[in-house]
Amino acid sequence: MRFEEAVLAPRAPQFSIDGSNLMESPNTWFSLYPSGKKFDVLNPRIQDIHIEDIARSLSMKVRFNGFIRDFYSVAEHCCIMYDIVDISDPDLFGLKKNILFHDAAEAYLTDVPAPVKPTMANFIKIENEILALIYYKFKVPKIIDIQYKLLKQLDRDICVTEAFYLGLNINVWPEYQNGNAHLLPDTQIHCWPWQQAEDEFLARYEKVK
What φ, ψ does residue 40 adopt, rounded to 5°? Predict the structure, then answer.
């Protein structure tokens, strides 16, 4: 998930909050679990977004397009990033909530491989609209530039660390080769089963909501 478009400033979405002025588009909705709601991906509504649905979906979505040694979910990725941040550092104030939700739009879409995503302008627009609505609903705070840079660097470092632990050859990764991303040797990758990943995500949400 790219941070550039959405993570710096959670904003009021550029569409109706309650969907009152939107007509449901044909063939653009799907059912959610466990809420049982119907989600129109092109006309998302705030009342159709629930933390239980986000936690369930992210806990079942695998990182790195599935090319890894063990099951490793987007939910665990968010939890590990969350756990690394030290909230006693004033420069990182508010980051825990941003980190927990930074990939939340993937609950309603998918985790697109990084090499492909820049070619998908319409997908990125939809993803950013959904993420903005999620930020709006859950009151994810705006962060300042220094926090954004720290968050971006942490995401790069975590990605490389996850890939190394999960059996990928990071020596061919440009960001690792050029020193823009670093291994975090003290970070433990658990490879939680999806049920635990879901519970862990919800437990952290209870701490920041």
Answer: -90, 110
Q: What are phi and psi of 74, to 5 degrees?
A: -60, -35
Q: Are 104 and 58 in contact (CB under 8 A)?
A: yes
At residue 34's C-alpha, the angle toward residues 208 and 74, to 5°, is 55
Beta-carbon contacts of residue 57 (< 8 Å; ≥ 6 apart):
106, 107, 108
Instruction: Record the tokens describing residue 141, joined without a space.
Output: 């705070």
90 Cβ neighbours under 8 A, 6+ residues apart:
none
Report the C-alpha gap between 136 and 82 in whole angstroms: 20
Amino acid identity, position 96: K
Q: How many CB atoms lie within 10 A of CB 125?
A: 11
Summarised one tens digit per residue, pLDDT across range 11-56 is 444 444 444 444 455 688 889 999 999 999 999 999 999 999 999 9
Peptide bond preceding 34 in cis form (omega within 30 of 0) = yes
Contact 78, 133 (CB under 8 A): no
In the three-class reduction of DSSP (H, G, I as helix; E, B as strand; rest coil), residue 41 is classed as: coil
Check if the beta carbon of residue 26 is closer than 8 Å to that of residue 42: no
Counting every residue, how long is the chain? 209
Q: Which residues pair with 29 in a beta bridge?
A: 40
The amino acid at residue 35 is S
Tell me how far apart the alpha carbons of residues 42 and 23 are, in angstroms, rounded to a whole number.
Answer: 10
Q: What is the pTM of this model?
A: 0.85
- Structurally, at CATH architecture level, domain 29-208 sits in Orthogonal Bundle (1.10)
